[in-house]
Structures are given as C-alpha cells and as structure tokens.
Inverse folding.
C-alpha cells in the first residue's frame, strides 16, 4: 500500500527533478555542443571552472548576494517587524512594503536606466536636498552594489510580510506580561517576538538562500544590453551558466555550463543544510 | 526503517538511470540521409510577425506558394531562434529553413558542422531574371566569413546587410563647418572634435557600459593599424598584444577619452540614454550599427540628414549579414533552397529597402536615403566582420574589463594592453 500511494509522487519527482539533475551531472563530464557527439572530459570541466577567475568571481558574487544581501534583508525585515507590530496604520504600511515584491525584477532593471541617470529623478530629488555631487549610480563599478540594493529592496517587503504573519499569531498576553515586567519595545522583541516567530524566520532564511542563487534576470537587465552580456565582474553562477550555454555567436559549451550548474547546486545544498542546522532549535511551546 | 530507506535509495538510482537512458534515446538523432524534397517546408524566422522584415517575407512567401504550389509553414520566432535551433537539431526536429545574422548562424550551427553547404543555391537561376544567385551577391560577403569544418563559407545566403559606422547629422551647420568632408585619418577626426569643442559641442555620444558599441572604435583603429582582431584574440601566449600597432590603437582611444570629446556623464548612463541625446543633437557622432537610423527615426527633429563613415583609417568596412540557412538535418532542403533563390528576385528583395528600411546585398537595389552613405562604403571596397568575427566570451572576459576602464579614463593605454594580455593568457588556460 505504501508504494501504491507514494509512487505517483515519487515518479513525478524522479522524472521532473532527479532525472534532469542526473542528466546534467552526466553531461558535466563531457564536452558537448548540444547537437553533435559528446566527448568525454572527465573532471576536466570542473578543473577548468576553478581555474577561471570569472567563475571564482561568480561564486563570490553569488555568496555576496546570499550572505551580504541576506543579512541586510533580514536585519531590515526584523527592524520593520519591531516597528510594524507597534505602529498605527500598519496594514497600509505592510501593503506598501509588500508592493515591490509584486513587480517583476526586470522592471527595475529597465527603469534604473531612467531613474538613476545623471539628470534623472533620483539625482533631481537629491539636488533638492542640497546634494549636488551625487554618486555615479550607473557607473560600471557601482553596478553590483546597485543590483544588490535592488534585491534587498524587493525582498525586504516580502520577508517582512511573511514574518509579520507569524508575529500576528503570537498571543497578546505574552506581550502584556512582558510589559508588566517592565520590558521595553526592544526587549519585548527579543524575548517574545523573536523566539515565537523563530521557525518562520528560519524557513524564510532557507527560502532566501535558495532563491538568491537563482537570481538572474535582474543582473542580465541591469548590466546587459541587446548586444552584450553584463560586465563579467557582475556575473553570479546563474549568469555564468547562461553565458556558457548561450554564448554569443559560437557553439554552446554545455559541459562547462552543466558543471557550473552542478557546482552551484552543491554549494547551495551545503549552505542550506548548514543553515538549517544552525537555525534549528527546540520549539518553545507546544 | 533503515532497510526501507536503502531500498528506496536503490530504486531512485535505478529509475534515474532509466530516465537518463530514455532521454538519451530521445536525443540520439537519425542522419540527414532521409532528407527528401517534399511538397513543402518549414521556416523559423528571426523576425517577429509585426516587424517590417516579416511583412516583406510574408508577402514573398504568399506569392511563392501561389507560384509553386509548395506549402510553407512559418514560425515567427524572433531573435531567439538561434538559441532554439541547436536543441531542435539535436532532437531531429529542426526547421528546413531559418534566418539570423551570419555570426549567429555560424555559432549556432555551422561551427559545429550542422549547416548545409548552400553552394548549389549560388548556382541557381533567380526566377524571372537572367542571372544566378551568385551573380547578384558579391563574393566578398562570403569571403569575410569563417569557414565551417568542411571548409565552406556558403552556409548563409544574405538578404540584408548591416554595417557599423560613425553616424552624424549631415545637415548640422556647426558640424558642416568643422568637417567639410568625412575624416580619413584619426588625427583628422580628433581635429573635428577639437573644432566642435571650441564651439562647446561634445563630439561623441556613448553610453559608458555599452562594451560592444564603445569597442567599435578600438576595432576600427586596430583594423587601421593592420591588426586582425581574430588573430589577436587567438594568441594563447598573449604576445600578440605586444604588437606596437595594438598599443597605438589603444592610445588613439585614449586620446578621444582624455581629450574630453565624449559627451559628459557618459560613464554613468545606461543605453539608450546617450543615443537619445545624440538624436536630439547634443553630440555630433555616434558609433553604432546601421540599424541605428531606424532606432532613432522617430526622435530626430525634422531636417536631419544621416551621414556616416567608417572609423577613420579603417581599411575595410564592417559588415554583418542577415540571411537564410538550412540545417544539415533538414528534411526538405530542396524547396527551402528554391525559396531562397525566389526571394532574391529584385522585385521581392526591394521590400527590404523600401518597406523594412535596410540595405540589401544586391548593388542594384538602392538603399533607403538615410543609409545611402553606408551602402556606398560597403560597395566601395573590402568588407570584414566586426571584431573580425571574434565570438564567445573572449570579449566579456578579456577585452571588456580593461577596455571599460580605458574608456572611462581610469587607466592608461599601456596599462590596458598589459591587463588584456594577462587576461588573455588566463582566458586560454580555461578554454582547453
């Protein structure tokens, strides 16, 4: 009976997930243009990957997005949680915060060219505040920080909304008790909100980690154009895979692309497992 | 419990292996031998249905079907056709005819030996005309292309030609005074920039992050110095960068940057901000492909007259071809070839100029007014592919990082050359 009921799910999982990954893993040991015969390369693709400074750079960028972007996002989300729980008009504030995550990331990539141009609305607004020499937002060296900023901005509202949903479920008497004990707003956050919402926060952290590795279109649109890929120092692993699989005017290097994808998959698996271990704790209350 | 887990694990492994085997079978194609001339063919187009080129092609396809009784199944795929063609060929589901830029066709199919040699098409008579396809398409367009593994460069039959050049408004009075005729040397070009600067008019428009466009200057200057970019990029030792001509080209770019001839703020804008500024007359020149005239057609004020020249000193004009190709595994190559010859009739092909506003490879079809200068440059002398056909990630990994710094005035020509040389050595280590 067990197999009868599990087999449909298992089969779907195998066909839709395990098989493609296995196929990609297998391809990563070959040199293949996607059309002709495969040539066995063994581990050479992986060796070449780690010799390529741009792949190492892509790994670092991916980790930067995950950890730097993630830290900023979660610190902001938790700060907002602290404020939102106590403030008036919080339903409106929550909707406003959630809004950016509804908009497709690509829109920001395209709109940035207009918003942050030297004579664009952002600089005009700064000019009104007396800042006459604003940074060169769209300069090549600022590209990656801009991408990171946009990611944080869109993700913060999203995770705040999820964490707030958990915070709403915390019984008010816990806060009242804390208040009677003389706890201030921050102490209430630390001893009530944080532990009570911890499981949701931990799940959010995993969600962020997994989604941060797959970020792709934002970088492509921020830095790329119709005639060129984004500057190589803004690539993350997803973009590296894309450039190998769909190079401009030359044959695809699918072996390298899959090797990069598998490396990225392994990295994210390790990070997720470690993160789960670190964030796991016994439930406070049943 | 442990036992069940072990069993499950084994089962998963087995099923995965089975799936991989199944996928393999699906991917293994049959040979092209079963190709035959049927009553029709399929065509995947690089154009989307609403584009003017699609309208021209559609009219021709309709007429072709009426005239020959051959049915054509068209998919208006768009530019991504070059990404879809490979998997389609692998699955033996390829169309019989497709079109793209010559470098995209080379990269997606011909380089891997998956494009049909279209030499027989060149020998085909054009319906209603006395000549053959080979008579109306100048051989120099084929000669500039890299050869496929079988040694052919006839894997694409072009119907549209584009070129990169420095574009300007020939009706601009200030520019007319500063530049009585198109400059033939880099120094003459800089003199024009200097004269414009005296009138406080910026010379060159550029979006700082647009590597491909900004590198067109360097590409042209290398060509002027007799450097073949393809050979430069292929040198695994990096020693090709020590050629004094390479340094000279970089120094010439540096002159443009350090002279302050580029529209201020260019290092902090995103395409197409500066293209728009150029179209509004805020800078005199803009180096881009000949498609730029169509891109800014609606922005330029009335009275604009497009002029253009190749990067001063360049020995050959840049050319990019858009044309038809047939995958080797196509099932109906015969009728597809017939259509290629049919479309190259003067009466059909003229639509590319009159309706789509572009240049055709036929010298007897006049280019639209705004591209007259480009057509003249193309027909006058030698042609070559932009960057001599360098493709793949050499540009993003070797050329772009250093070049952007040079273009933004953050490094010297000598440093740029040294950086690029090192980048090229490490690049080739990762290409084996």
């Amino acid at each position: 009976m067990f197999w009868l009921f599990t087999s449909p799910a298992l089969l779907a999982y195998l066909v839709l997930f395990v098989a493609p990954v296995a196929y990609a893993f297998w391809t990563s040991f070959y040199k293949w243009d996607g059309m002709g015969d495969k040539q066995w390369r063994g581990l050479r693709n992986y060796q070449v990957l780690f010799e390529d400074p741009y792949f190492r750079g892509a790994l670092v960028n991916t980790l930067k997005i995950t950890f730097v972007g993630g830290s900023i996002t979660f610190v902001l989300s938790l700060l907002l949680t602290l404020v939102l729980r106590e403030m008036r008009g919080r339903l409106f504030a929550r909707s406003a915060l959630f809004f950016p995550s509804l908009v497709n990331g690509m829109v920001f990539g395209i709109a940035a060219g207009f918003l942050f141009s030297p004579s664009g609305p952002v600089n005009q607004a700064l000019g009104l505040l007396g800042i006459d020499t604003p940074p060169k937002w769209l300069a090549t060296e600022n590209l990656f920080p801009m991408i990171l900023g946009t990611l944080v901005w869109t993700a913060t509202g999203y995770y705040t909304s999820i964490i707030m949903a958990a915070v709403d479920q915390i019984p008010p008497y816990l806060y009242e008790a804390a208040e009677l004990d003389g706890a201030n707003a921050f102490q209430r956050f630390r001893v009530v909100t944080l532990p009570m919402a911890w499981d949701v926060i931990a799940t959010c952290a995993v969600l962020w980690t997994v989604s941060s590795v797959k970020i792709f279109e934002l970088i492509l649109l921020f830095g790329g154009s119709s005639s060129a890929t984004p500057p190589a120092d803004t690539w993350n692993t997803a973009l590296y895979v894309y450039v190998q699989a769909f190079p401009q005017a030359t044959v695809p290097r699918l072996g390298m692309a899959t090797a990069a994808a598998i490396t990225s998959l392994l990295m994210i698996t390790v990070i997720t497992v470690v993160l789960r271990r670190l964030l796991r704790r016994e439930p406070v209350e049943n | 419990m442990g036992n069940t887990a072990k069993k499950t694990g084994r089962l998963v492994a087995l099923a995965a292996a089975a799936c991989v085997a199944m996928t393999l079978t699906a991917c293994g194609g049959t040979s092209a031998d079963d190709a035959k001339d049927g009553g029709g063919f399929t065509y995947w187009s690089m154009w989307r249905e609403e584009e003017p080129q699609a309208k021209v092609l559609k009219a021709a396809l309709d007429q072709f079907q009426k005239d020959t009784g051959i049915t054509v199944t068209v998919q208006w795929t768009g530019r991504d056709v070059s990404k879809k063609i490979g998997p389609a060929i692998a699955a033996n589901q390829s169309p019989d005819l497709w079109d793209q830029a010559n470098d995209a066709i080379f990269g997606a199919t011909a380089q891997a030996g998956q494009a049909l040699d279209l030499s027989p098409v060149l020998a085909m008579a054009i319906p209603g005309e006395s000549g053959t396809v080979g008579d109306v398409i100048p051989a120099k367009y084929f000669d500039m292309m890299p050869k496929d593994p079988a040694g052919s460069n006839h894997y694409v039959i072009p119907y549209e030609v584009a070129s990169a050049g420095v574009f300007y408004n020939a009706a601009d009075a200030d520019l007319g005074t500063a530049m009585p005729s198109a400059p033939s040397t880099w120094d003459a070009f800089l003199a024009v920039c200097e004269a414009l600067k005296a009138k406080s008019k910026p010379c060159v428009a550029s979006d700082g992050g647009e590597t491909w466009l900004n590198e067109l200057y360097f590409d042209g200057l290398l060509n002027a110095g007799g450097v073949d970019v393809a050979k430069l990029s292929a040198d695994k030792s990096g020693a090709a960068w020590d050629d004094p001509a390479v340094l000279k080209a970089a120094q010439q770019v540096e002159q443009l940057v350090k002279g302050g001839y580029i529209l201020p703020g260019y290092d902090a804008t995103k395409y197409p901000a500066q293209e728009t500024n150029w179209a509004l007359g805020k800078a005199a020149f803009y180096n881009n492909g000949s498609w730029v005239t169509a891109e800014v057609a609606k922005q330029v004020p009335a009275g604009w007259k497009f002029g253009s020249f190749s990067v001063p000193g360049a020995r050959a004009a840049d050319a990019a071809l858009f044309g038809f190709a047939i995958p080797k595994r196509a099932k109906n190559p015969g009728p597809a070839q017939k259509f290629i010859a049919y479309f190259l009739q003067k009466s059909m092909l003229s639509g590319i100029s009159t309706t789509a506003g572009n240049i055709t490879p036929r010298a007897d079809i006049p280019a639209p007014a705004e591209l007259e200068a480009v057509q003249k440059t193309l027909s006058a002398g030698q042609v070559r592919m932009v960057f001599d056909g360098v493709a793949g990630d050499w540009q993003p990994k070797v050329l772009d990082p250093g070049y952007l710094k040079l273009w933004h005035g953050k490094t010297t020509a000598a440093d740029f050359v040294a950086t690029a040389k090192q980048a090229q050595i490490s690049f080739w280590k990762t290409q084996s």
Remarks:
- Residues 1-38 of chain B have pLDDT under 50 and may be disordered.
- Chain B touches chain A through 52 residues (CB under 8 Å).
